[in-house]
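User: Second chain of the day. Same drill as before.
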Amino acid sequence: MFFLSGGYGLFFLLSLPALILGLWAQAKVRSAFNKYSKVRNMLGMTGAEVARKILMANQLSNIKIEETSGFLSDHYDPVKKVLRLSPDIFKSNSIAAAGVAAHEVGHALQDQGGYFPLQLRTFLVPTVQIGSWLGPIIFFLGMLLAPSIGTNLAWIGLILFGFTAIFTLITLPVELDASRRAKAWLLNSGMIYPSEINGVNSVLDAAAWTYVAAAIQAITTVMYYALILMGRPRRN
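Assistant: Same format as last time:
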């Protein structure tokens, strides 16, 4: 079988650049965060305080702010209307914490304004959660069956997994727009001094590259599976 033998070279050819980009992006995020998590913002506001101030200024007092576990596990839940901040962001008064907290509030502002890419991403979440694990199972099961039956089954698996790639592509404008809103609010509200914005930019711009890498990795994986199927004989 192609995907069990000669397909490895093709897989690495497609996936290696995305893998390298992903590792570089993760290292860049950690480097920027480690640097600016040690630099106190001039107003001494914690991430939770920054988030609450922006929310209140936008009449979003209904949004709850909770502390969650994990490293940089910060996220906004548009279904439950909850902003969850990791301990390094929730309690810290660093420049990095202010930037990350404001970025997550950016998603709440998107939700408030009916930002379509966020709505679409939220709509796709259940499908992606199923497709990301069930799709590959169905795909490889189809590859193990006779082509007359298995090929169609494999295509179904690929389509399900393909929603993961679509999800990562939709995520890009959502994340970039949230960072844009965060930087604007921090500067315009005076919560961050102009001399501190470079630190915010470093952290948020580094994080953006992780989403680019994730999108490329998902797309190249779908391409690999599709090439395998297109090269498979239709009959035994």
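The longest strand covers residues 64-67.

User: Great, on to the next one.
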